[in-house]
Specification:
There is one protein chain. The protein is α/β, with parallel strands linked by helices. The chain has a single domain, classed as 3-Layer(bba) Sandwich (FAD/NAD(P)-binding domain), CATH 3.50.50. Helices cover 35% and strands 23% of the residues. The protein has 13 helices and 17 strands. Strand 1, helix 2 and strand 2 form a beta-alpha-beta unit. The protein is globular and about 60 Å long. The relative contact order is 0.19. The protein binds flavin-adenine dinucleotide.
């Protein structure tokens, strides 16, 4: 795999203008053999959270990133801080049993708390806002909202959820499309780029040696485990793989468990205080309840950041900005005169069941990937679970690793067409209501 291969996922011509991704060239590329306690691959949330935990525990930690900090999904996402998992806890219990499901709920909650704690403790200025709305478009969604309410409030004694009727959602989201929904007072949103930079700064202060422009091309599972990076050997006691959507290129056996899916986001010009409050009076993050969903939030400088859909086919969309703008105007027709000058995109790493996948690739090689569009909170705790293992405690990792996964069917060639077909079915279901 070459650096060009990774970079080609994000064509250089894109008008990447909102949020300056990358800490630039402050971190030296790796240019010699090194030894350390832990080698971490990936300069996104997972890698940085893990490296920070390990360095804070006094371990000599080296982090290698092929491009720059935040190059992957961590520098490109919608910034929505979401509670729980992509599956209801009743479904999770069917997969792993009620006891493990209860523990998985606590683990997800600990992930959200860890993000908030890190923002506070490291004083990361990332525009944190609270409140997350799931918006119902159809009566079926209202029934689903009630199920989620019972699943969390009754099933997990979660106190922060509130059902919204038509007036309740109008008070928070001034779109004619929604007929009700759910408010999660404990969810929220943040600027993903400033958050990933804040984590990188904290990790550097804690002593992590970060190397950007440092592509790992070979994994050696050991003993001792190590990576070949820019042609140099990183020898470690432990290796943590946090390359998410790109990992299948380094480790062929991971290909098939996780599928990279391209998705785009646009941002409006500044709307001003009153313009932005006319859309989201209380400043919540919002996602609709479709399977292929719209999601949006305001930025501190009063832009609306809007994401929708995904390209499952693997072929690049001819004009993602135009499609997104059409969808934005369906949600907020009042923005017809507003410019949407910013577009960016990234790879979401999805698993079949949309739950994260943690695995051991060797006695001292761990990986976490496939956060399926819900990685802000879960990466923090998956990273901590891996750091726990390095420090000798396996319980949290083992519970997460019990989530059962299947490979995408169809082998290397048919996997993507089959996924595209199945997503068409979900699209149809969304449209039929
Ligand atoms: C457009 C978009 C919107 C999203 N919206 C949300 C949202 O609103 N809320 C939410 O919770 N989640 C969201 N997600 C998902 C979330 O961003 C991810 O789950 C999370 O960022 C994953 O973090 P990570 O560190 O595991 O992976 P990444 O951030 O992808 O980092 C992996 C890093 O590893 C590096 N790497 C890979 N291979 C190598 C190698 N061989 N050598 C060296 N380095 C390598 C890559 O360059 C990359 O920087 C979204 C994702 C996208 C793309």
């Amino acid at each position: 795999m070459s650096t060009a291969t990774l970079a080609s996922l994000h064509p250089a011509g894109w008008p990447w203008v909102y949020g300056d991704v990358g800490v630039g060239s402050t971190c030296q590329a790796l240019d010699r053999d090194v030894t350390c306690d832990v080698a971490v691959l990936g300069g996104g949330y997972t890698g940085l959270h893990a490296a920070l935990d390990l360095a804070e525990a006094g371990l000599d930690t080296v982090l290698v990133e092929a491009q720059h900090i935040g190059f992957g999904a961590s520098g490109r996402n919608g910034g929505q801080l979401v509670t729980g998992y992509n599956r209801s806890m009743a479904e999770v219990a069917r997969l792993v049993g009620p006891e493990a499901a209860r523990r998985l709920w606590q683990i997800a909650e600990a992930g959200k708390a860890l993000v908030l704690e890190r923002i506070r403790y490291h004083d990361i200025d990332c525009g944190l806002g609270r409140g997350y709305v799931s918006a119902a478009l159809h009566r079926r969604h209202l029934r689903e909202a009630r199920h989620w309410y019972e699943d969390w409030v009754i099933g997990q004694a979660y106190p922060s959820l509130e059902l919204l009727d038509r007036d309740g959602i109008w008070a928070r989201v001034r779109s004619p499309r929604y007929i009700g929904g759910l408010l999660d007072r404990d969810g929220g949103h943040l600027d993903p780029v400033r958050f990933v930079h804040g984590l990188a700064a904290a990790a550097t202060r804690a002593g992590v040696r970060i190397h950007e422009r440092s592509l790992a091309t070979v994994l050696d599972t050991g003993p001792p485990p190590g990576l070949t990076v820019n042609g140099h050997r990183v020898t470690a006691r432990w290796v943590i793989l946090a390359g998410n959507a790109f990992l299948g290129r380094l480790v062929r056996s991971l290909d098939g468990w996780v599928m990279p899916v391209t998705t785009h986001i646009i941002a409006t010009e500044r709307l001003g205080e009153s313009g932005s409050r006319d859309l989201l009076p209380l400043g919540d993050a919002v996602a609709d309840m479709n399977h292929i969903l719209d999601y949006f939030r305001l930025t501190p400088d009063t832009r609306l950041v809007f994401g929708s859909g995904a390209n499952y086919s693997g072929r690049s969309s001819p004009d993602p900005a135009a499609g997104l703008r059409r969808q934005l105007l369906r949600v907020f027709p009042q923005l017809a005169e507003v410019l949407t000058p910013h577009l960016w995109g990234g790879e979401v790493a999805i698993t079949i069941n949309r739950l994260p996948r943690l695995a051991r690739l060797g006695p001292r090689v761990l990986c976490a990937h496939g956060f399926s569009g819900q990685g802000l909170a879960l990466t923090a705790i998956a990273a901590r679970a891996m750091a726990d293992v390095v420090r000798g405690t396996e319980e949290r990792f083992d519970v997460l690793a019990r989530l059962p996964h299947q490979q995408f069917p169809g082998g290397r060639h048919l996997r993507r067409p089959l996924l595209t077909l199945s997503m068409l079915w979900f699209r149809l279901r969304d449209l039929l209501g």
